[in-house]
Design a protein that fits this description.
Layout lengths: L25 E9 L5 E9 L4 H12 L2 H6 L11 E7 L5 E4 L11
Antiparallel strand pairs: 1-2, 1-3, 3-4
């Protein structure tokens, strides 16, 4: 039988999913921006310990809008339009999966 300690994540926090196994509170947030050549380029941020998707998005956008990140993109700020949001989970065998829509179709309001 697993105990809470067996299910704890590396950070020491435990979040149990529907299947009873540890589900790390991590999110993969894809942030698009236009490059100087007018191509859309996606930058991805892994956000851990956010608690919920809204906070994960805010953390990813804050990272994306740091001065160093903006400098790489030519100074452009990014917004919460057309984000790709996926939750990073572990299945019962410990395999990492991305949950959520795999497409980048709809802009969500955060």
């Amino acid at each position: 039988m697993l105990t809470a300690m067996d299910r704890s994540s590396p950070s020491g926090t435990t979040e149990t999913g529907a299947d009873g196994f540890a589900q790390p509170g991590k999110w993969l947030i894809g942030v698009p921006f236009r490059s100087s050549a007018s191509r859309v380029v996606w930058m991805y941020y892994v956000v851990g310990g956010a608690g919920d998707v809204s906070r994960a998005v805010r953390v990813a956008l804050a990272r994306a809008n740091r001065a160093r990140e903006r400098q790489v993109r030519g100074g452009a700020f990014v917004t919460a339009e057309d984000l790709e949001v996926r939750r990073i989970t572990l299945d019962a065998l410990g395999h990492t999966r991305l949950d959520g829509p795999g497409d980048r179709s709809a802009a969500l309001s955060w």
